[in-house]
Specification:
The structure is a single chain. This protein has a four-stranded mixed β-sheet with strand order 1-5-6-8, covered by helices on one side. A three-stranded antiparallel β-sheet has the order 2-3-4. Strands 7-9 form a two-stranded antiparallel ribbon. It is globular, with a radius of gyration of 16 Å. By secondary structure, it is of the alpha/beta class. A hairpin with a 2-residue loop joins strand 2 and strand 3.
Length: 166
């Protein structure tokens, strides 16, 4: 909360999480059996809403992470003047899959491969959100035998550059 509240309008804030999730939030390492000790999706949305930063991103690799979208209908205007990117490992009713033969879950594995250049389909040394989503989504769906479906949602332009290798 403190870091995000100090962000200025020209800053970019990024929240990245890889771990366990439940239908209403994310499970930090010190979470107890009490759901209130988790990081609720509502709390994450509230923290983002309160930040003055115009560029906001969430990368979440956790079961049920698609639920962070909240009201995905687009009818709430809480981020209307901001570029917001939610890049989530699974739909709200899906689990995110791991393998004992991989260091990370399927989503994080393909996310890292994509950011390291695998998603640069037009070879311009820039990776856009759209390129990264297509790369990660295709890899995760294939690896999971279509049991896991990453989600990308938010208000941003198709040419939104996430990584510039120039």
């Amino acid at each position: 909360k403190d870091q995000f509240s100090r962000a200025k309008e020209q800053d970019m804030i990024v929240f990245s999480f890889s771990g366990h999730g439940y239908s209403g939030g994310l499970c930090p390492y010190d979470m107890s059996v009490n759901e209130n000790s988790g990081i609720s999706y509502r709390e994450i949305r509230s923290i983002f809403k309160q930040s003055r930063a115009k560029r906001k991103m969430v990368f979440a690799d956790a079961c049920y992470s698609g639920g962070i979208r909240g009201n995905a209908s687009g009818s709430d205007n809480e981020h209307q003047d901001s570029e917001v990117l939610l890049f989530l490992s699974s739909r709200s009713g899906e689990t995110s899959i791991e393998s004992p033969f991989m260091v990370n879950g399927f989503f994080t594995t393909y996310l890292l491969r994509g950011l390291r250049g695998g998603a640069d389909t037009d070879k311009n040394r820039k990776i856009t959100a759209k390129e990264l989503f297509h790369f990660v989504s295709q890899g995760v769906k294939e690896r999971s035998k279509n049991k896991q479906h990453p989600v990308m949602w938010g208000k941003f332009d198709d040419s939104y550059v996430l990584m510039d290798w120039n």
